[in-house]
Specification:
transmembrane helix; 61% helix; sequence-specific DNA binding; alpha+beta; single chain; Helix-turn-helix domain-containing protein; Profilin-like; 769 residues; Beta-Lactamase; seven-stranded antiparallel sheet; membrane; five-stranded antiparallel sheet; 6 domains
């Protein structure tokens, strides 16, 4: 009897334990099904996202190519040889000029496959110029013409008509006997032509196949279709489908053209719209292609689930048998603890603890992923900063805040640390070793100096930025501190890891916009140190390199132009001062090089004046004359002062123009408010639509100019009008509330009392008395 009881208990526990394991084994099956459904959903979402991205990238490439086509026509518009031909009289035949135009002008399009087939029509010569030859219009029409369009229609609609960046939709076309479909880009010359007929017309014929090649990834990879239409609904490109199907799609009420992606019948339809020209891009991808990866996941999930169930059953049997005896003791403890048998039967604690552990693990993974993304953002910001890709200080400060990088006062040094001994080595083992070495250097430097902005440069270099931490920091003291830090770092990594390094630093940058310049100096200093076999740490001012060529890089010129156009005088002066210092203090320029430098800088300002913003300004002629009158033989300091004066005038003009524009906008807001204050639906959004400016922009502008919020101004207008009506009319308070734009008389009374200090009835009574 004593022996039978344990056997009975063990059998009961064994059965319960086995049942619990079977239930546990069912859970992975459910989990497998949920995982399968989730995997399908995630895979489908990723496929949709990738398809949308691919369509958007194709759209970007196409728009960039079309922008290059437009830029090509603008190049032709400023070409002197072509302008001479356009302005010659009808009775003059400049054969040599035509030959030069064919030779020089018509070779611009060799770098863009959208410009493979184009021509220029000269009205005064009645001549068509192509890259290979020149034709009379009727001769050209015989070789290349639109199907269904006669030569007279072609001459009237294309050659003798004014065009402003006009695009002719997809049309059937015969090019030298070959049937194809094309779109046509047309631009009259000169660019500001507004008459029916113009001196010249540039016509670019773009084959549909060339445009379709940009979208081949969607049609060839997925076996889908692509359709591009202009803002009027005319077809630009159609691949993989037919025109009737596209029309049926667009007219079907079940299809929502405003959605980026949606399933329509058996296709995923992706729709994007260009913000520049209004073109609509649509791509259709078969559903079965999207589900290909999901089906693989499905089969793998069921296979793993089946194997896991089989193995789980075997393991459950073994564990149930082996744990029968010890589980009795656990049941006894639980009975003593809870006093109920149901607690043991439910056995919920194992599931709960397992789920909690799983949640903690996933939470840590998510936190780790978020922390991992921040260094990537910081690294991207630092790479853009040292490359000089930012155009203004405000843009740099905003990007730094996003990357959680403290720029302090924006004053400091840019340096490069190079790991020695790996030059020319690029094997996988060496690259792995360099990755580890760079990580060790960063960790060591962070331990010595705290968080310092650092980014990799190639496989064996690290770029570092040292910002001044104190307001009254002295340049010499900061250089000494940096030198001591780098020497300490070099000694530490050599003693610990037998790593040797050398470092170079550029000159002090007094603003974050000069970081890229300091970085270039650091690169040149490092090259000089390697060339001269200098070890340790070297500063740019220690190189004593004399240059016979002037310093005026293209990115500096573009930044100067952008800064002046934005009206940022201080930044523009800082750029000019930096250029002058570079060429005056660190270079030994010959007279010829100095003359070329001054000519380049004068050319920059003349190029800036030729932009529409300044061409219409009253100061155009005077400033242009001042630029031209700058002498080449004057000292650079004098020329620097002249440029400062010119920039003050230009930036002052931009500032005043902004102020005039702001005042005009405020006047429009005042006028529109006086006209529409009786409308209860009048909001800042409606006003923004009227003045054609963003809502947030006009809200801030109104506050800056007038000192009050627009909502308060609207309330004051309504209350002033209400006071006049209360005084001079016999309307009731409710009627007056409706007349001044209030749907609720209660809201009107509350607003009137808040602004006037008394209720409307009391105000009317005081007026009567």
């Amino acid at each position: 009897m004593g022996e039978g009881l344990p056997v009975f208990k063990n059998s009961s526990v064994f059965r319960r334990f086995l049942i619990s394991y079977v239930i546990i084994l069912i859970i992975p099956s459910i989990g497998g099904f949920i995982s399968y459904r989730t995997s399908i959903s995630v895979t489908q979402s990723l496929s949709i996202e990738n398809s949308v991205t691919q369509l958007q990238k194709s759209q970007e490439i196409l728009e960039r190519r079309m922008a290059e086509v437009e830029g090509f026509t603008r190049q032709l518009a400023i070409n002197q040889e072509l302008n001479v031909l356009m302005n010659e009289s009808d009775n003059v035949t400049n054969v040599y000029g035509i030959w030069r135009a064919m030779r020089n002008v018509l070779t611009f399009g060799q770098t863009n496959d959208f410009l493979q087939n184009y021509y220029i029509y000269l009205a005064n010569y009645n001549l068509i110029l192509t890259p290979g030859s020149s034709y009379r219009p009727d001769h050209y029409y015989e070789a290349s013409h639109y199907n269904g369009m006669s030569v007279d229609e072609w001459t009237k609609q294309v050659l003798n008509k004014s065009h402003r960046s006009e695009i002719k939709p997809l049309s059937s076309f015969v090019n030298k006997g070959v049937q194809t479909s094309v779109i046509t880009y047309m631009q009259s010359l000169p660019l500001d032509s507004f008459y029916d007929s113009t001196p010249a017309v540039v016509v670019v014929i773009i084959d549909e196949k060339i445009i379709a090649s940009l979208l081949s990834g969607l049609t060839e990879r997925y076996g889908g279709w692509v359709h591009i239409s202009d803002a009027d609904g005319n077809t630009i490109v159609l691949q993989g489908s037919s025109e009737p199907d596209i029309k049926k799609l667009s007219t079907d009420p079940a299809f929502d053209g405003t959605k980026v992606s949606q399933f329509y019948k058996d296709d995923l339809v992706i729709t994007t719209r260009s913000s520049t020209n209004g073109w609509v891009y649509q791509a259709g991808i078969p559903r079965q292609v999207l589900m290909e990866n999901a089906n693989k996941i499905k089969n793998m999930s069921w296979l793993i689930t089946g194997v896991a169930l089989f193995i789980g059953l075997l393991v459950g049997l073994v564990l149930a048998y082996r744990n029968s005896v010890p589980i009795n003791r656990m049941i006894g403890v639980m009975k003593e603890q809870f006093g109920k048998d149901e607690t043991v039967e439910r056995n919920e604690f194992d599931f709960l603890s397992g789920n909690i552990a799983n949640m903690i693990t996933k939470n840590k993974l998510l936190e780790s992923e978020l922390n991992r993304q921040l260094p990537l953002i910081r690294d991207a910001f630092l790479k853009r900063l040292i490359a000089g890709e930012f155009e203004s200080r405000d843009e740099i400060v905003s990007a730094a805040m996003q990357a959680d990088i403290n720029l302090l006062r924006g004053v400091g040094y840019t340096g490069i640390i190079q790991i020695n001994g790996y030059s020319g080595m690029d094997s996988v083992e060496i690259l792995n070793e360099l990755n580890a070495t760079r990580l060790l250097l960063k960790q060591a430097l962070s331990e010595m100096e705290g968080p310092i902005p650092m980014t990799d440069m190639g496989s064996d270099k690290i770029v570092i930025l040292f910002f001044f931490r104190e307001e009254e920091a002295i340049q010499a003291d900061e250089e000494k501190k940096i030198t001591e830090t780098l020497e300490k770092l070099a000694q530490y990594v050599f003693n610990e890891y037998r790593i040797t390094i050398q470092a170079s630093f550029g000159d002090l940058f007094s603003s974050v916009v000069e970081v890229s310049h300091s970085f270039e100096q650091a690169k040149q200093t490092l090259e000089y140190a390697v060339y001269m076999n200098k070890k340790g740490i070297m500063w740019n001012h220690e190189t004593q390199v004399e240059n016979n060529t002037y310093y005026y890089p293209m990115d500096t010129e573009q930044r100067l132009i952008s800064t002046i156009r934005a009206g940022e005088l201080d930044e523009a002066k800082r750029i000019i001062d930096s250029i002058t210092a570079q060429n005056l203090n660190q270079r030994d320029l010959s007279i010829e090089m100095k003359h070329q430098l001054v000519g380049e800088m004068k050319g920059t300002f003349l190029k800036l004046l030729d932009q529409k913003t300044f061409m219409e300004a009253p100061l155009f002629e005077s400033v242009k004359r001042r630029i031209i009158d700058i002498g080449f033989s004057e000292p650079l300091e004098t020329i620097q002062g002249e440029f400062h004066t010119i920039m003050e005038e230009l930036c002052g003009f931009i500032t005043n123009k902004k102020k005039d524009t702001h005042i005009q906008i405020i006047k429009q807001m005042y006028q529109y408010t006086l006209e529409m204050y009786t409308d209860p639906e009048l909001t800042l959004y409606r006003v923004a639509e009227q003045v054609e400016r963003p809502e947030k922009y006009i809200s801030q502008l109104f506050k800056e100019v007038t000192g009050v919020n627009y909502s308060d101004h609207l309330v004051k207008i309504r209350m002033d009008q209400a006071a006049l009506l209360l005084k001079n009319s016999g309307d009731t308070v409710d009627e007056i509330a409706a007349r001044v734009g209030y749907n609720s008389s209660h809201s009107f009374r509350r607003a009137f009392k808040r602004l006037m200090g008394i209720s409307p009835s009391a105000y009317r009574q005081s007026c009567d008395e």
